[in-house]
User: What shape does this take?
Amino acid sequence: MTRKIVDVDVLVTSPSRNFVTLKITTDDGIVGWGDATLNGRELSVASYLRDHLGPALLGRDADRIEDTWQYFYKGAYWRRGPVTMAAIGAIDLALWDIKGKALGVPVYQLLGGAARDKILTYTHATGWDLPELLDSVDQRREQGFRAVRAQSGVPGLDKVYGVTKGAASYEPAGRGAGPVEEDWDTAAYLRHAPKILSAVREHVGPELKLLHDVHHRLNPTEAARLARSLEDVDLFWLEDVTPAENQRLLRTLRQQTTIPLAIGEVFNTVWDAELLITERLIDYIRTAVVHAGGISHVRKILAFAEVYQIKGAPHGPSDVSPINLSASLHLGLATSNFAIQEYMGYDPAVSEVFQSSFRFEDGYLHPGDEPGLGVQVDEDAAARFPYTQAYLPIARELDGSMKDW
Ligand code: GCO
Ligand code: MG
Assistant: This one.
């Protein structure tokens, strides 16, 4: 028996953020949804799906998820890379959604069933100065969060990625033809960050899990200095301390600190993480299902990481769609070495387009028990929010040279 794919459609919608959504329909009328959002490069993935993979999907058996994954991964000749892997990831999510709906079970049941009752989640707190940051952290605690990522401004700068003077909201991407440019000052950051994070720890006491994201801005020496000065803050993790390309450099950093390290949100395949995993240079792997070939590939990354006592903690910002979040939660519920899920919530307009069955309670998330991934997409609502170009800001050193992301 086969379940034939009869229609493939790609929606690009912008209810506050640009999201690329894949819709696959089968000959028995089942619709599966996948997320294909690659922040700032959305249309490249949409074209990859519309122009190359979509036509090849027509007539294929929707039930053959692994074979379809291998067909597109091995069959492309040009393997890996964010655009390719996001496109394959979207197909993978849509096919898991279809299989769940066809069998009447939530996707986590197809992955082996629940390995935990609920998924610990962390959110973002931001404030330009300490009082604003503490207010933001307190708000998050009042909302029930048990784990919070704390980011602040830096004295001498006007803006730091994701934190704006006097603005409570998080505005990571600016609309327009090119990215906004920000200044960056490593020395000022290194002087300031330990003080502010120590003050946050003192304010919240020992229980709250505190995280901090460096966004690839340091070299290994600077990262070691920062980590050593933060040892007493008891961070749950320090994220993306250095650019992720030259991973051998992290060997020396690991000898300098016991702070857990989290890396991987820009990775697309297991090959991007192989050294980090086999040498255990990280404690948490951050790869998101949407960006690394979907559930089928990320669960292999997590199985590989499990052997090295590394846990999954996927990227889950508001700039990928609720379909990605749901897929991550199904995977997380069914995976024993899954630690925590990033969750920032969404603009209300996002819920007009994506209705999701996941629920947040008391600092934990659960994907819900609807068949498939549990996300309905309202295509009329999606059409009301057309795509507009938007990009993450870039940063320059004080002398005007480009800074690493
Ligand atoms: C995170 C990320 C974000 C990214 C953004 C890129 O940990 O959530 O680092 O802050 O910059 O999601 O698309
Ligand atoms: Mg990050």
